[in-house]
Amino acid sequence: MEFQFDLEFYKDILNQINSNIYITDIETDEIVYMNDYMKKTFHMEDAEGKICWKVFQEGMDHRCDFCKIEKLQKMKAGQPSVWREENSKIGRTFLNYDVLKQWNGQTYHIQNSMDITEKVRLSKKASMDELTGIYNRSAGKRHLGEMLASLTEEENLIVALYDINGLKWVNDTFGHMEGDRLLVFTAQNIKEHLKKTDFVFRLSGDEFIVVFVNRSLDEVDRWMKDMLETLEEKRRAHGMDYEVTFSYGLAKIYAGDHMTVSDVLSIADSQMYIQKRDHHIMVGKRKLQEEMQKDEAGTLFQYNKDHLFEAITEGMDEYGFVGNLKTGEFMYSKKMVRDFGLPSQILKNAAAYWGEKVHPDDVMGFLRSNQDIAEGKAERHAIQYRAKNGKNEWVHLLCKGRMLRDARGKPDIFAGSIRNLDETGKTYPFYGDQKTRSENRQDWNTDRKTGIQNYDSYMEFLGLIDEDFYASMGVVAIHIVDLKEYNYKYGRGEGDSLLIFVAQLLKKLFGEERSYRISGAGFLAICPNLSYEKLQDKHQELRRQIEVSYPMQAASSIAWEENVISLERLQEQAEEKMFLELNKKRKESKFFDDKTMNKMFAGVQKAIQNHNFSAYLQPKADARTGEICGAEALIRYYDQKSGIVAPARFLPMIEKAGFIRYMDLFILKDVCRMMRQWIDQGWEPFPISVNYSRVTILDTHILEATNEIVEEFSISKDLIEIEVTESIGSTDSGSLRKVVECFRREGYRMALDDFGAEYSNIYMLYTLDITSLKLDRRIVTDMFKDRRAKIVVENVIHACKKLGILCVAEGVETEENKDELCAMSCEVVQGYFLDRPLCEKDFFEKYISGGTDLSF
Questions:
Q1: Rounded to an integer, what distance in angstroms lies between the CA atom of residue 69 and that of residue 81?
Q2: Which residues neighbour 158 within 8 Å (Cβ) at sequence distance 6 or greater?
């Protein structure tokens, strides 16, 4: 059925629309129609018949230079032009939709303009770093990502990562306000000197990113050096009586590189580190030269334990030392002064002094390790190096020490011992002359096929290792994907070549004495006294080289620990993560053709499309007031025959199939969708937590995937809490700590779930940067029938308060439970006493639209 409406009817509809709409004759630019909303916007009564550019713009005597009519005439008929305008007449910002339409043989220009002034203001405010006035991390990375995606073959980007030198010293010496002034001074000067096509953003505390468009590396390098000179010239005028410098690294990117933002920043960071290291070494040497010129070698060491130090070191076979990290002065035992010809028992800036005496091949590691101690990045130190003694001979030394902090947590004292390994005659794992070790190796310790050490050798080492001997330990686990199938398809000779390739690569990256073949398809590499970052770098290089030569044929993972070390536990952790990776590889491998898996995944996708899976929300409340302060999202499955199906009936099967990450991200997206919808309706939001399984949290790209979903719905990241679910006992602390730190830097809340279950670890409580801790329902239940459980709960709550961690009790079933927890100062409760998990509709009606609180 067709309806005929007259012109007045359509005009009345247009006048009801809250958008600025007008129509002009493209030949004369005369306005032939303007709706009432636009007349109010521009304070006009009679617009028809007037020239558009005269009434809409200020001081214009011809058609606007930015008018889109000529562009539209060249475009496909009916295709709109969408553009943004800063209006000079009323000072508002509009998003314009322009199109040309023909009617009765004449062409008209139609524009629909939406006022986005407030949105632009809020977006700009949200994109700016409050301290420095430049783009913040989120906006900068987003802008860089957009530029990477739009690069053409003729274009390139140079990305510079710069890090302020000496910011910690400025903060400690002059206060944090002066440190902030240094950051602002540097950032604003760089911003002022950039071209319009370039931009700068703050990546973290003292790290910044500058993006240059279509420049050469030499050009940008000169620009950065010129900027250092500019800062040096300007600093005195600003009353800065200290050096203003930065270290930087450059990465050049072309369209064909197909790099992510993380890839680009990683390259720039590695280049910046080299310059940062050189800066620290240069500063150390300069201080040493200054002190030597002052000829103060005989100055008494300001340390009130002189007699104790002498008494201890005189009775030691090893050399002793103690250092004041605030002054750089170190005292050595008299035996070391004699044996190494030291100028005196007290050395000023000892790291720089020893830098001249340590073997050239060992000096970088020596200086880096000492720098980590001086900056408070490490508290224990165990390093082997070669140095010249008083007879000008190279001797092998093992230095072990411990750093102590002052009352403010700053590095204060560093003390320990130095052992001459050449004198002891004892063989230490990974140390000593490689040739001698190789000659003494028994044939039965060697894997005949690959030439590296075998399982027996590894077990022998495991029985002899003194784990207290090391400051840190890392393990790399590798497994060949379906070696039997590979042999069947390509022949045993090709399979042997694959094994030999992996073995030789391990030997090259980690050393012959650290590499083992422990099973037919399994390998291990042991990495003592290596930082977590260095271990990651070596592991990435291992994966890259294997992938180039044998794509999809090996799975690998790492585990790392410091201070309290158990090699067996590290092996278990690395192998567990490796087998997760192995399952993933099997699904991606061309050899993996499991029809059941494919059918199951198709079923999961179909169930999501049919809305069988959904997020249910269970409220959390303030234990004292009953005010709803959050919720936890829990997955549920709806079956037409059985109704709601409990997660225990379907999640284990999904997890075993390797689809749990897919489900975790689905729940996050469902939660963000709800929150966006409720916020748009005026809801004052509270945080909602989602559960990430161990498989999900260990995925290398999980942070990027999380950001993509949260940013798609424009949800503030501090409204999303990630709960690390299941047992975390088999996740090594190094990996987990790194993941948590990355999520916290992005602004997310992090919760440690199921605390009190069998794998809970007190170590995690004070090493992870978590915002909340969830007491497992089992320990909450047990505390009402077991006095010891109650003592544990009470002390955990007390520890949380001291650490600034929000304590949440799960499984609160009765008012008695709630009252007892409240008396212990537990802050938040969750459980059936408050409410069961609710579907979206019920939760909205009960806690969002109604704002119901549970008055206790």
A1: 9
A2: 211, 212, 215, 216, 217, 220, 250, 251, 252, 253
β-bridge pairing 106-115 and 93-103: antiparallel
Separation CA 784–CA 821 (nearest Å): 11
Residue 439's pLDDT is 42
> What residue type is assigned to position 750 of the chain?
M
| The CA-based dihedral angle spanning residues 376, 377, 380, 385, taken in that order and rounded to the nearest 10 degrees | -110
Q: What is the pLDDT of residue 434?
A: 39
Dihedral angle at the C-alpha atoms of 496, 499, 503, 506, nearest 10 degrees? Answer: 150
Q: Across-strand partners of 628?
A: 621
**Structural contact between residues 574 and 559, judged by C-beta atoms closer than 8 angstroms:** yes
For residues 103 and 107, what is the distance between their CA atoms, to the nearest angstrom? 6
Q: What angle do CA 5, 8, 11 make, to 5 degrees?
A: 105
Amino acid identity at 653 = M
Beta-bridge partner residues of 480: 554
474 forms beta bridges with 527, 560
DSSP for 688-710, written as a single string = EEEEE-HHHHT-TTHHHHHHHHH
Quick: pLDDT tens for 40-72: 999 888 889 999 999 899 888 889 988 999 888
Low-confidence ranges of the chain (pLDDT < 70): 1-5, 123-125, 256-257, 270-271, 273-307, 423-444, 463-464, 466-469, 488-490, 563-565, 586-602, 642, 646, 648-649, 652-653, 655-658, 725-734, 757-761, 850-856
The amino acid that residue 844 corresponds to is F
C-alpha to C-alpha distance for 37 and 94, rounded to whole angstroms = 14
Among 570, 575, 380, CA closest to 473 = 570
How far, in Å, are 601, 690, 731, 841 from residue 670 at the CA level? 19, 10, 28, 13
Cα–Cα distance, 237 to 850 (Å, whole number)? 59
411 bridge partner residues: 405
In order of 512, 601, 756, 761, 823, the CA distances from 796 in angstroms are 46, 41, 10, 12, 14
Give per-residue pLDDT as tens, 129-166: 888 889 888 888 888 888 888 777 778 889 999 989 88
Dist CA 667 CA 663 (whole Å)? 6
Give the span between the Cα atoms of 32 and 43, in whole angstroms.
17
Cα–Cα distance, 671 to 676 (Å, whole number): 9
**Closest Cα partner for 45 from 25, 27, 31?**
31
C-alpha distances in angstroms, 675 versus 123, 680, 750, 848? 19, 8, 19, 10
Helical spans, DSSP H, in 356-477? 363-374, 421-424, 434-440, 455-464
Whole-angstrom CA distances from 509 to 358, 453, 607 are 23, 15, 46
Question: Nearest 5°: phi and psi at 211?
Answer: -110, 125
Query: Can you tell me the distance from the alpha carbon of 369 to that of 400, in angstroms, rounded to the nearest whole number?
Result: 11
Burial of 530 (0-12, 13-18, 19+ CB in 10 A): buried
Q: Which residues lie below 8 Å from residue 424, measured CB to CB, with a gap of 6+?
A: none
Nearest to 472 by CA among 387, 541, 368, 400: 400
Token digits for 504?
């030789």
Q: Which of 250, 255, 246 is nearest to 148 (CA)?
A: 255
Q: In angstroms, how far is CA 788 from the centroid of its own chain?
A: 39
Whole-number pLDDT of residue 98: 93
CA angle 171, 266, 501 (to 5 degrees): 135
Cβ-based burial of 548 (10 A; exposed 0-12, middle 13-18, buried ≥19): exposed
Rounded CA separation 635/652 (Å) = 13
φ and ψ of 636, to 5 deg: -135, 150
Could you give the CA distance from residue 202 to residue 745 in angstroms, rounded to a whole number?
13
